[in-house]
Amino acid sequence: TMLRRLTDISSNPRGKWVVILLWIVLAGVVVPLSPMLSEVTDNDSANFLPDGAESTQVQELVDERFPRDTTPAIIVFHNPDGLTESDKRIADDLRAWAASGDAPDAIDATSIVSIYTVPQAAEGLLSEDGTTMTMVIGVAGDTTSDDYLDAIRAIRAEVSSPPDGLSISVSGPGGLILDLISVFEQIDLFLTLVTAVLVLTLLILIYRSPVIAFVPLLTVGWVFVLTGAVAANLSEQFGLLVNGQAQGIMTVLLFGAGTDYCLFIGSRFREELRRTEDKHEAMRATMRSVGGAVASSAGTVLLATLILTFATLRSTAALGPLLSVAIGLMLVAGLTLVPAVLTVLGRAAFWPSRPEFDPDHETDPQAGSSGIWERIASVVVRKPAASLIGSVLLFAVLSLGLLGYQVTYDSISSLPEGTEAREGFEYLREGFPAGESAPVEVYVVLDDDSVALEELAPIDSMTRALVSREGVTAVESVTAPLGTEGPLGVEQVATAVDALPAEIRDAIDSGASPPQGGVPDTDGELEQAIGVYAATRDFVSDDNRVVRFDVILEDSPYAIDQIELIDEFRTFARAAADEAGLSGEVLVGGETATNYDTKRANDADIRVIIPLVLLTIGVVLGVLLRSVVAPVYLLATIVLGYTATLGLSTALFTWVFDFDGVGSAIPLYLFVFSAALGIDYSIYLMARIREETSHGDFREGVRVALTRTGGVITSAGIILAGTFSALMILPLRDLFQLGLAVAIGVLLDTFVVRTVMVPGIVVLLGRWNWWPSQRARQPDVRSRAVSAPAWDGPSQS
């Protein structure tokens, strides 16, 4: 077969060098000509929603019709003993700096809102207890650009040394974006180093050899670099969206799965070196034995991750091709590069415990070196029903943790404690209405014959309708730029519009400073009118055809009950616009609406992706095992293991780590990874059981198979769990939770499902495991060969 020819070349005396040379050339050509994956990442959550989502339409509307729109940084001044005049002077100094030529060009001086630029807004900028004050500084440009991020850094540098008692946090959307990007920038190198050190340590402990421990690091590192280059090219050529979180997942998946494949090959190679004197023949037998299992395992993971491409949530869909490329390259490396490198090393790979040639050796050293797996196998085979019932009851108890299951969409709490943006938001939540940190944004796209500033009466009518809705504490709009409870209303706005000459309005509309001379200012009326008019411009598009309303909720905008009300609120907003006489399209966006659209897309993806993954794995298992029965109970163990893992993880997240819920992406990612990676061990175990039970007594065959694969599967499971647990060192809630949950799932799969549950079912069903194949009706009486048999489907391991 093609697989046999491919692996034979890699173990050929000359072929091994050709394979290694080809991989060197491939890396030497692709990597230098490709961009860095970090250069094409996009961490803006709004860009990961489905194209048809209303929040996506809002983002497109803002980009098109509000080109001068800024993304604000909210500077939070907090003194638990009450803000002093000295504290406020520091705030005024910051305002003066931001409006001067010393500040970065990206800072929009006309967008600064403070108690000094807009005295009428003091009530909304200063908390009732006097401990917290805010200042808003708008920063223009793409939020991921260097100019934007440097401007946020400059603001932080300007207030980096506050006096004792005063805390100054640069928070809001600007601070949040900078902190998230800063965390993601650390993921790539830091996570790679930690994962590599962890894998190296575990391999040295397992093999007790420093030489072979470096083989997985060499091959996986090779594939890791190539994957980054290929994925970056895909991102540039086809618009593949990749974020920092996807990079972290790719890293641990590559190291975990890749090391497992190296472990399967290395363990069997050591066994074959004891049987075969020539290292090339030993590797040839090894790959004919386990090459099919490695290909089947990697192929299953590849198909499962590729199914993610069908997700409607673009952040999930982007994972599909990225992870598929990674596993696909690792599969090719596992069938070519790994055996070539090991063949070059030969017995020296296992130094100082070199496996010496012993033609009488028939025992698997990995399993035979310890009697624990033989004892476990004997108990399971002797009491299969009790083993199965006990393991099922254990998983049922663990699944009870789902009673406390709750999803969280709070992006603020996903940041590590002590982060400046999170600290600022926490002060805001303590001193101001909960919804003020992330208003719901309502946009009305007026008909072509309407101009916003000529529609003040209907705009004010809609403002009043929105604020009257239960759960809304305030609304900011053209006619209430400082809020419905603020000092500015429709009369003051109308007066300001009428009082300003056209040249001043045009200057403010264009973002320029209003002309200073030529217009008399009686008792400061002109200055006040300029301030009022400038405040209204935040709520009107440049072409005066789109009006924005900021709806501030009483409760947290990230609360699940508020998120679930968005659909109802969208219907209400459209009705309010009709009743107010504002004819045009009405769109609702903002953080709460974005989270609603994310939840809706994520729920739809769960309903589609999970059944597709199960169906795919079931078909693959049916083809490989040539059975209808075995895939059914193996899929049942996947589902049961998943509920137990999610239940235990939920309990730990809630009661041990004190998280406010489970990250929204965790359930789907956990299922895909635990199912796809766990099935590797099913394939490896079932292939060996099928081989061993072909020689006579069925129970004895299961016992031998479990004994001889126990050590390898356990070692592989520990390494895979260890690599995913490396995600727990990262200061992001969702990656921490994913790392812990997948590690728990892999360990439960390794020590319970593949060790107790599956063997128990196999013994109880006997040869019905292979129905409807011939083996279900009569045993295969082929004699056992001393050397490794050729791969003939999964019947040979």
Describe, in short, the structure shown.
The chain is of the alpha+beta class and 797 residues long. It has helices at residues 2-10, 15-30, 54-65, 85-98, 122-125, 146-158, 172-207, 210-238, 244-275, 279-306, 314-335, 337-345, 365-368, 372-382, 384-399, 420-431, 456-467, 490-499, 502-509, 525-536, 560-563, 566-580, 591-625, 629-656, 666-692, 698-725, 733-765, and strands spanning 71-78, 132-139, 167-171, 407-408, 440-446, 472-476, 546-553, 584-589, 662-663. 60% of the residues lie in helices and 6% in strands.
Give structural notes.
The structure is a single chain. The chain is of the alpha+beta class. Helix content is 60%, strand content 6%. The longest helix is centred in the N-terminal third of the chain and has 36 residues, at 172-207. Residues 363-370 and 779-797 have low confidence and may be disordered.
